[in-house]
Amino acid sequence: MCERGREGQRDRRENMATIFTILFNVIVLLQSTDIYYVVHGFSLSKKLSSTTSRSVAKNTHKKMTTTTRSGRYPSPSSSRLFLIENTGSGEDDLLVSTSFQKNETNIPSDISYYSQKTTIMTKADDDDDKEVSKSSSIRETLKNTIFLGVDPTPDVIAIATIYFVEGALGLARLAQTFLLKDELHLGPAELSALSGIFTLPWTIKPLYGFLSDGFPLFGYRRRSYLVLAGLTGCFSYSAVGNSFWGLLDNTSSGGGDATMTLSYTVAALVLSSACIAVSDVVADGIVVQKTRESAKTDPSLAGGLQSLCWGSAAVGGLLSAYFSGSLLETMKPQDIFSLTAILPLLVACIALLIDEEPLSKSNINEIESASTNTLDNSNDSVGVRSQIDGLWSAIKQPAIYKPALFIFLWQSTPTSEGAMLFFMTEDLGFGPEILGRVRLFGSIASLFGVVLYNTYLKTKSIKDILFWSSIISFPLGLLDLVLITHANRLIGIPDTWFVFGDDVVLSVLGEIAFLPTLVLAARICPIGVEAVLFATLMSINNGAGTVGTEVGALLTKSLGITESNFENLGLLSFICNLTSLYPLLFIGWLDEVGSISEQEFEEQEALAAVAESEALESTAIDTEAT
Question: How many beta carbons lie within 10 A of that of residue 172, not counting itself?
């Protein structure tokens, strides 16, 4: 106890010595010179602001010390103060480190010193610097590893989270299938038809873009729509997960109650799909805006941000792919929906981190009544009417509507997915966990397809990729006949392994065929309406998928395929695979834009940009000379 007290007294004496030393040097400095004294970012000066002083101290990282002799006053040779001198040209001045020595005759004679060396920067300040350095190091590590070279600002974290949620919402995909199949007792044709209806909100994506750009909510064009979509999506999933809180008689017996339950369930699932689509459009708009803003200051941000967005969605998709099946082994479909409701709520909360300035009332009125091509550039707003006019002018061009029609034909071929799902669950006996694993391996294979395309196929023309991927996919798609007839068992291949292998190969080819359509859609978008036209082309793509699903449902119904009758499933599979070839009859529509590879197109764009830059520079020189 006494020893602790003596240590406390000794510490207090040393602290008092430090304080006296600091005060003494400050008094001497202020009396004799106009040089500014900075102590760990805080300044005591007549002219220099505290902001500038803090910047000075942080930039120099110098440890300012005063060396003294024990029990004596500092001599001219032993006392040196490291100071920062202002050059007098503003906050961004060149700051010069200098030293000052005071004549011994000006030093009082009644001050004694207790320490050999007194440090102005305290231990607490050292710890603060270490914490700042450690925090910067962690942030830099996150930037270079997880965030793919993009600075992890709150804005970027919010965007990545939104895309992650979009991928992770696949957690309820299998739950949705088993809810409609087992709880509401729908057959293969009905399930396929509803699957097409659930994608309808994705066919009107340009409408969401028009609304968010032209009609701000509560002064915000991005943040408010994300919050609204997140809260509505959370409500929809919660309603399905909690059986509408007992407001409906959730029984499948008695046609009226079952029909009402089905109607409300379908409405809730369509609403949740619309909320995801709205979030996707708004998030895409934020990414486009940030990419354009960084085009001159940091061009590398565009590619890094796009990769971060798609990577976040892929991670969410991979995580949900497996757990969507494994959780169904131990939980009811309604419980999965209740768990999934957390994800859109996360979007609503994370949207508050979006860096967006609220629009003034005058700006909102200007946006809503705009009819010209561009409005206030500070708000980056475009009138709804002008967007529609520009979109219609672009679509009328043959170089645009022909590839758009080809994309529609390419995606509108019928599919037998609904019938095959019933076959795997009812005939082969696959449970949710196996189906989840199939989804997981398919998602991984899709990523491999992306790598394969970017590594080897970017030098090939889009027409060639689409043509040969269709040709190769046809015989591979017919492998479903081997599974349907159980011929794989005759050669010793288990059903599970056959499904895994078939799905992996087709997923790779599917991704290889899908990526060129994205490149094609981006390539035909003219300047000025690129965002709205690209969204329209993606809506055409999604609408074509809905048409294909509905046609497949109609064929399933016509062939009499039910949950217990798979006699004509082989014929359905053959028809769907055969019709996938008919779009190749119209591949000539891509001659104008699809005859060169993506790499060649990028090189042409780069050369055109260089030529344009040189022309502008030459014009500027001529103007200056004139």
Answer: 26
